[in-house]
Amino acid sequence: MVRLDRTIRRRVPVPYDVPATPDRARARTTAEPSRHTPSSSSPGLSPVAAMTPFGTRLRSLRAERGVTLKRLAAELQVSSAYLSALEHGHRGAPSAGLVHQVNEFFGLIWDEADDLAGLAKLSRPRVRINTAGLTAEQTALANRLAQMIHRLPPDMIAALHGLLDRTTQEEKPRLRRAARKA
User: What CATH code is carried by the domain that includes residue 89?
Assistant: First the structure.
């Protein structure tokens, strides 16, 4: 058991032979949610949901191949804390060099390597959208999405992904420059 020493703000072990006060007894019997994992009262959040797309894929690669976070960190010459933070979105998107190292470590080639690089680009945990020069409707949509995204159910998120995928796959008309007169 650990208590917080309020005078110097550090944790001090509490011996178990000390008579328990009601506060200590309650602390031993009820587990408080960790500040690092989402609470069960947060709708739609789980430890996996808090991960970035790149982090989710990296963790699944590690699980498939039986590689620990510590071993991967040693091979990539980064700290395990950094990799963990990268997986959970507490760090920015990984660099292209790190993605390349991960591809080499796991032996990913062609499509798998491209997919991992694409996931890395989609894994920026703090996104800013510059709506300067856009219409009022586009600005309103960006703001509403920013305010509501944490409340959207997974099926709605999947539907939005599908809509965006269909929109970007439509062929765009090619613009040709007018021929110059000499």
Answer: 1.10.260.40
* Distance (Å, whole) CA 65 – CA 63: 5
The 10s digit of each residue's pLDDT in 80-126 is: 999 999 988 898 889 999 999 999 999 999 999 999 999 999 888 88
Is 176 among the domain residues? no
**Residue 12, domain member (yes or no):** no
> pTM to 2 decimals?
0.59
- Domain residue limits at 117: 53-121
Q: Please indicate, yes or no, whether residues 96 and 143 belong to a single structural domain of this protein.
A: no
Query: Which run of H or of E encompasses 13?
Result: strand 10-13
Quick: pLDDT tens for 18-55. 444 444 444 433 444 344 433 333 344 344 456 889 99
Give the Cα separation of 44 and 95 in Å (integer). Answer: 29
Q: Tell whether 1 is covered by a domain.
A: no
**Spatial separation of the C-alpha atoms in residues 5 and 9, rounded to whole Å:** 5
Cβ contact 87:55 at 8 Å:
yes
Helix (H, G, I), strand (E, B) or coil at 178: coil
CA distance 139 to 181: 41
